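User: I'm preparing a small set of examples for a lab meeting where we compare how different chains pack in three dimensions. I only have the primary sequence for this one, and I'd like the structure in token form so I can line it up with the others. Please keep the answer compact; I'll paste it straight into my notes.
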Amino acid sequence: MAQERRGHDRLRIAMIGHGFMGAAHSQAWRTAPRFFDLGVEPEMAVLVGRDPERTEASREQYGWQAASTDWRAVVADPDIDVVDIVSPGSSHVEIAIAALEAGKHVLCEKPLANTVEQAEAMTAAAAAARSRGIRSMVGFSYRRVPAIAFARELVQAGRLGTIRQVRALYLQDWLADEDGPMTWRLDKALAGSGSLGDIGAHAIDLVEHITGSELTSVSGTLETFVTERPLLADGVGLSGTASSERGQVTVDDAAFFTARLGGGAADRAIGTFEATRYATGRKNGLTLEISGSLGAIQFDLEAMNELRLYETSAPAGEQGFRRILVTEPEHPYAAAWWPTGHLIGYEHTFSHQVKDFVDAIVAGTDPSPSFEEGLHVQRVLDAVERSAADGSSWTVTA
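Assistant: Understood. Below is the structure token output for the 398-residue chain.
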């Protein structure tokens, strides 16, 4: 591997894709080594995109050393150590497998793939690469919110007792305007699914991460409210000029499902999950509530530095949820940043992700969430889709 030939002084990073997630990951690769002792220096070596002009503009804006439109050549380059995949889900399987087989560590954005079959192939490639010391991780960045990491500590320490119920909602409204333009996220061939996979995957992963349990069966409902949207005559994403042509929306706009959990702190618990991009007035409303025999926790991403904790052991006149500001140096990740009470933001979760990924590479350990964990989430998504299609409950099977 290139890193072994040079020694352990640096990691040369290639990133495939440069949209929204490309900006977030670029910021993280720049910032993480300034605030955490990573043991190696990440170098932002190559940014890869399809359009030469846009890729070069992003390279200059985000601070990468070089730009390319040939991901295969970049993956084959012996001077590249890490491949960071932030392109649409349809491209994950081919790029990830090629990178792992070429001996590159791989960080891949969630959801892992567009289908269970693709995720299985990626997981098999990751397992084979692991035996050669090659590490892989799925980018479920919200695990790295300090309040979420702290919530996991509380649950794993038994502070909530036996977990009985979980409620997870991810509510956005950026598609509420039915004349808003088509994007790749509304095309099943590119995105795999809509709200379910795009944001519902986060809710699934966080519940499983915090509780140490897995969703074992689901019963779901999916709905597409707007089936056609204007195509853009120019531009990408949500920018550009709308044309008179309309494209077919082939993914879900909203997903709702119930679930049973098994193992871990939430063994035999039940849960409700909702993911929608039509919740008018909600911008990035990821909320979790986990209820147990000894207490409960509440989290809201729009107040991401806070966690609310209820404990039944409090005196009768003092019971109720209490607000914990998760900015103390004793809290996960917090000591690296600002003095107590000085808040951090969305972008910090990606810096924490880089820290954990690079720490694992340097230590020669397997990072989490692994591709196996990403595959499990993919199976849950698939089970929800199958349930919604035939109106029955589906067991999440390996």
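A couple of notes for your slides: Residues 1-7 have pLDDT under 50 and may be disordered. The CA atoms of residues 57 and 111 lie 27 Å apart.

User: Perfect, thanks.
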